[in-house]
Design a protein that fits this description.
By secondary structure, this protein is an all-alpha fold. The chain is elongated.
């Protein structure tokens, strides 16, 4: 099921969308819907990860700056350490 959504975009983006629509042989509506769906998915994932990180910090599951720094400084060297948890 689909629904209609009206949006305002600047004229430069509209021209680019028109050109992309012609080149890809897809409707502007299809391209806009795909772009919005990808954006929403990405933002949901990112905000979920931020919230999960905050929950880990609240639960006391942090890794100190010194531990991370030591790990990063070991990269590419003999005896490279595993990522801290």
């Amino acid at each position: 099921m689909t629904e209609t959504l009206s949006i305002r975009i600047d004229s430069v983006t509209k021209k680019r969308l028109d050109a992309l629509s012609k080149r890809s042989r897809r409707s502007k509506s299809f391209l806009a819907a795909e772009a919005i769906a990808a954006y929403v998915e990405s933002e949901e994932w990112q905000l979920g990860e931020v919230q999960a990180g905050i929950a880990e910090l609240d639960a006391g599951q942090e890794v100190s700056h010194e531990t991370v720094s030591t790990w990063l400084n070991s990269w590419g060297k003999p005896g490279e350490t595993k990522a801290p948890r």
